Amino acid sequence: MGMRFLCLLPLLFAVVLPAQQSATPPGGAPVPWETISIHITDPAHADNGLEHNVANGLSQHAMTMDFFIAAAYTFTIFPTKDLIEGLPDWAKDTKYDVEARVAPEDAAAYKKLTSLSIPDTAKAFATRQYTGEMLMDQALLEDRFHLKVHTELRERSVFLLTVAKGGLKMKTAADPAHGSANFDRGHMSGKGIPVSFIGNILSMPAGGLVVDQSGDVGQYDFELHYAPQNMDTTAVGASNDPDFFTAIQEQLGLKLTRGKAQVPVVVIDHIEKPSDN
């Protein structure tokens, strides 16, 4: 998400930041949910959260409200609690299973809006435009949790993304119109990815929000290999790759440094426990 680092004195008043929504959301207009089922997760099966889209809806298991809200309102691919403020304790701790489906006649439209390309997703995130999928998530939260929110600037500890000494080492995208991204333990790759969105991707292994300060607007193909954190370096098959922060400088020509930034944060105005199914 292309955000500038601002060295500001503490705010004396709230700055409300609505998303810059276009007439037609990226991916297409949202379609209505036909059915929504929400249950508190069985404690015996609450250890691992799981989310996946099905042909005509979504299925989420053992997810907390911060995950739901981040997916619906923040422009990050790895939701972070730092971008949400004002959740009551029950919403922070309770895990839910959610099953939502659209009508059969809306299945094709739903598939389209949940299959937004990476270049289009990156553009939507950079311009803070809610995608059709995000708007559907918002509708679910507003309907069943009576959620009301607004967005304000807040100072947060972040990683600042800049071009490393010596310049970028990634290849210019061979096909900027189409993009892809792959993630694995100790490896990630991408094609047709803007630097601002690379920062979004790097947020998970970095362990915190990444703010793009590179000033670069190009799209790139890249491969990144690094030693996963918490790996026993003496174990058989241990990685010989550099640590993550060294790897991005050596292989991508990018640098992450710790700092502070004013970033848009979702502030909870009202939320209730979900209504009956």
Provide the descriptors you would attach to this structure in a database record.
single chain, 2 domains, 12 strands, 23% helix, 4-stranded antiparallel β-sheet, 4-stranded mixed β-sheet, alpha+beta, globular, 277 residues
Characterization of this structure:
The chain is α+β, with helices and mostly antiparallel strands and 277 residues long. The chain has two domains: 33-154 and 265-270, no CATH class; 156-261, no CATH class. It is built from seven helices and twelve strands. It has helices at 65-73, 89-93, 107-113, 118-126, 132-144, 195-206, 244-252, and strands at residues 33-40, 50-54, 57-63, 84-85, 96-102, 148-163, 171-172, 180-184, 187-194, 210-212, 219-225, 254-270. The chain has a four-stranded antiparallel beta sheet. Strands 4-12-6-10 form a four-stranded mixed beta sheet. A four-stranded antiparallel beta sheet has the order 7-11-9-8. Strand 8 (180-184) and strand 9 (187-194) form a beta hairpin. Helix 1 (65-73) packs across helix 5. The longest helix has 13 residues, at 132-144. The chain is globular and about 60 Å long. The two termini are 36 Å apart. Residues 1-16 and 231-236 have low confidence and may be disordered.
